[in-house]
């Protein structure tokens, strides 16, 4: 190495200058904050705050995220996140994460250079200045503006770190016989897979490499064993990952064939982004294409077929086979996210970090080929002009990267950029609203949330944030409606429970707040914010009203204390227990009107109207002038009449929609058994309707009938695979079943 540097002093200086330039271009990104999925994988993920949990990262997918729907088995990245959290002092510091990601990025550049240089030497064995060509190609890739999307998005380190190990595996394979004979190239493949699944593409890439460069590799008949081992390792690791991924995990995508045809045009977008990255967006508003004859599908299919034709046409050309290899790399690297496996987002600009290396290889080989075949008389001019153009392009990318770093510099700038480039993205508007909330612009935030809900009426997070905004301006009734709705839209997501519970704690409704927080903690035991909110209760700093009253009853089991306990249970949403406590008071004091009124109110809430009427009648007899008692009794009479008449009407004239409405009425009253019964009647009338099965699943989840919920949820998802609500309800049922 020392001898090489002495002989190539100018190159060594240029190589160092490139590293300095990369550092300067990214110098404004190190303090950029966490964004988007960083929240549940890092900020609210308590599992990574104790490095002593490292063994759990390999056995418990719940340690990867505080959201059950996102708990994939990626122990490698969870471990790296935990290390950076430890280096941050126990609380995640984005600047620490950015520094480790950037060091990995620089090392990626070194591997890109080494692989590109080797391929250029094989394609042009008699060519000159391959070192410089490889350096310019590496500079183009490392300073490419699109890479800023991946480097700035912290949890996208799954892409950067897995790419490093993929490149290391390929480089080991290229190095020589000793690395292949001992199958050492499989080690980085395995490590990369633990970070993210695209490492499985090493096998196909090695297959293409052997196809195009078998003479140079000189594997002497062992190629099939080497390539087969890479495929075998990938299959083995994939099976382990599938077995360890949480059942609650969901990709969130639609039909696979709609996703596949959409990807044809997405690939055109990615290619255009490699050429001219002017449409970068942190969160696009692209949606599935469902028409097979959509112009975009036809254009995309023609482009993909054209690229495949180029791969085949050039594969036997000694100097241009590197173009075939680079294009094949591009498609193979895209396969995990741009084929038949549907994800919620049809495209993400940070997904092209690894595939772009392939296009960089293809482009570099093509440029060198053109320069090699320029007439001698014009060679100096064309070469100089080409180098100048390449340098100009690199400088343009450098400027663009610096500017994208600025965009990622705050939530406000990032999400404002998203709303401009992707105005039909409800999530973008919601996140922009969050940024405005953070700076105190409540009016602007509410306006953004309204736009978000206009686009996505059932977007759970928009409901949560609208609730937060309404609570901030003391519109508590509206706030509570939004919080409750968020938990209905996604019962398996802990965020709704956390924010609603917090709201109730702030309003002094301690028992209710604690109950909602506990439900959130059951869903996500490693949710850092929920654990922090519950910590005062666990330490004894705060006692819940129920615990306080239970302590009083131990000392003095008086009727008054049982009524107080009844009220505490009622406020905590435990209506059956509320009625039971009030009944204990009546045993001690049969003429206790307040206690009978509590029994009536609690049974009304539980949907037990006959019991409520009986208790209410006694309360009114004992306290005829008590308006509250009269109101509760009249409410019991009204509800009993409504449901009796509705039931009778449906028995005479059964109809699907009527039973669905009755099911909803019972559900809203908290009588989940009757809600299930009504929904079952609906499914008996029409078993092919989605709503009935989904309703059974939702109500059964409420009372822990997990087997019934799972069976109904599976039918609902089969009838409407695109319904996120059905998927969420089914995931909640599966989570509950697993905890039994």
Structure description:
It is built from 36 helices and no strands. With 740 residues, it is mainly alpha-helical. Helix 13 crosses helix 14. The model has no long low-confidence stretch (mean pLDDT 91).
- Spatial shape: elongated
Continuous helix count: 36
Structural class by helix and strand composition:
mainly alpha
Q: Helicity, in percent?
A: over 70%
Say how many strands there are. 0
Contiguous uncertain segments of 5+ residues: none
Overall pLDDT metric: 91
Portion in beta strands: under 5%
Query: How many individual domains?
Result: 4
Q: Rg from C-alpha positions? A: 31 Å
Largest sheet: none
Brief rundown of the structure:
The chain has 740 residues and is mainly α. The protein has helices spanning 2-7, 9-25, 38-43, 75-87, 94-123, 130-142, 147-152, 157-175, 177-181, 186-195, 202-217, 223-244, 256-275, 295-314, 321-334, 355-372, 376-407, 411-421, 426-438, 442-455, 460-472, 476-489, 494-506, 510-523, 528-539, 545-555, 559-571, 575-588, 593-606, 609-622, 627-652, 656-669, 672-685, 690-702, 706-719, 724-738.
Give structural attributes:
4 domains; 36 helices; mainly alpha; Serine Threonine Protein Phosphatase 5, Tetratricopeptide repeat; 740 residues; 0% strand
Helix-strand layout with pairing:
Blueprint: H1 2-7, H2 9-25, H3 38-43, H4 75-87, H5 94-123, H6 130-142, H7 147-152, H8 157-175, H9 177-181, H10 186-195, H11 202-217, H12 223-244, H13 256-275, H14 295-314, H15 321-334, H16 355-372, H17 376-407, H18 411-421, H19 426-438, H20 442-455, H21 460-472, H22 476-489, H23 494-506, H24 510-523, H25 528-539, H26 545-555, H27 559-571, H28 575-588, H29 593-606, H30 609-622, H31 627-652, H32 656-669, H33 672-685, H34 690-702, H35 706-719, H36 724-738
Helix pairs in contact: 2-6, 4-10, 5-6, 5-8, 5-16, 6-16, 8-10, 8-11, 10-12, 11-12, 11-15, 13-14, 14-15, 15-16, 18-19, 19-20, 19-21, 20-21, 21-22, 21-23, 22-23, 23-24, 24-25, 26-27, 27-28, 27-29, 28-29, 29-30, 29-31, 30-31, 31-32, 32-33, 32-34, 33-34, 34-35, 34-36, 35-36
